[in-house]
Amino acid sequence: FRVRDLVNAAIEPKIKAKEIGHRREVSIRLELPQSLRDRLNAVAPDLAEVLAISEVDLQTSTDEQITVEVRATTAAQCARCWRHRVDVGQAAVHVALCVRCAAVVSERNP
Question: Residue 12 contacts by C-beta under 8 Å, 6 or more apart in sequence?
Answer without folding.
Answer: none
